Amino acid sequence: MALDEYQRKRNFERSPEPKGDAAAARKVRKGKPLFFCVQKHLASHLHYDFRLELNGVLLSWAVPKGPSLDPATKRLAMHVEDHPFDYGEFEGVIPSGYGAGIVMLWDRGTWTPEVDDVDAALAKGDLKFTLDGYKLKGSWVLVRTKGGYAGSRGQEGRSWLLIKHRDDWSSGELDIAEFAPLSVKSEGDFADILSQDNPAIWRSNRPAQGGETGAMFDKIIAQALEMRASGARESGSGTRDSLGAEAPRAKAAGSGTRRRSSKAKAVKTKAAAKTKAAKSTKRR
Ligand code: MN
After folding, report:
1. 281 has a pLDDT exceeding 50
2. What residues does the ion ligand 1 have nearby, CB within 5 Å?
């Protein structure tokens, strides 16, 4: 496990993503509960990056449709290069280069292997584990498929399936990606995240042109520009240094009504998710 491929693909002068140090992370993380996260990533296509901490790095799979709580719905998960442990808290805008787009921290928590030997399970292509996140909980499995899928030339052995096991946290009805679409870090959506950065960044060259993804970018950029303009009008300050520095100021000034309403939405969604999860548990 190394971060060579991760680091080779990125220019850290131009990307806000962490460079990472696997050896240092291994030391710091020793004896701690294992971290997991899911990052919703709008790039050339919308997908969900599913990451499990192991030995100081994050094992990573790109899940085009995102996780499903329905045990009957197997979601394709393309195994990608290990990411730095520090990547797990990353949310923000990648202006250009590899993965250019917007990253949202969609879920995070801890994971527990349901096997004694994780390396052996990975080698075998069958890893069972339990998640304890905000949105994803209970028992899951990642299974490597045989021979890849149609159009996966050169990707042999990289194609896995992410499947929910039947338990108190599974649901045949609730589409979790649709039901709980917002960030667990900022509670915002893609437009909120972009508005904290530089919404004009892709005025000419967007990460995706045309099609469904291009349309999503168009809409999100317009929203972010509008949020920023109205935020500047209300607070008299259009500049934001960083997420952390801006959040308390925005609250104090009461700026950005849309921010507030989207936060309220996030809170409501969380409460509703709990109620709904409890209900669906009872039904089963
Ligand atoms: Mn990604």
Report:
1. no
2. 41, 49
Backbone angles phi, psi at 233, to 5 degrees: -65, -45
**Tokens read off for 87:** 């990547």
Copy the structure tokens of residue 161.
């399936």
The pTM (predicted TM-score) of the whole model is 0.81
CB atoms within 10 A of CB 207: 21
Q: What is the mean pLDDT of residues 13-32?
A: 94
Q: What is the pLDDT of residue 275?
A: 45
Ligand 1 centroid distance, CA of 232 (Å): 31
What b/e string do you get for 7-37 counting C-beta neighbours within 10 Å, with b at 16 or more? eeebeeeebebbebbbeebeeebeeeebbbb
* Residue 263, pLDDT above cutoff 50: no
- Cβ-contact 130, 114 below 8 angstroms: yes
Query: Could you tell me which residues are beta bridge partners of residue 39?
Result: 49, 105
Please list the helix, strand and coil fractions of the chain in percent, rounded to the nearest 5, in that order: 35, 25, 40
What separation in Å is there between the alpha carbon of 251 and the centre of ligand 1?
31
- Give the range of the structural domain holding residue 183, as residue numbers without chain letter: 4-283
Q: How far is the CA of 50 from the centre of ligand 1 (A)?
A: 9
Residues in the chain: 284
Asked if 47 contacts 60 with a C-beta cutoff of 8 angstroms, the reply is no
Number of domains in the chain: 1
Q: How many helices (H) and strands (E) does the chain have?
A: 8, 9
* Cα 9 to ligand 1 centre (Å): 12
> For residue 28, is pLDDT > 80?
yes
- Calpha distance 223→231 (Å, rounded): 12
Ligand 1 centroid–CA 77 distance in Å is: 11
Write the pLDDT tens digit of every residue in 52-93: 999 999 999 999 999 999 999 999 999 999 999 999 999 999
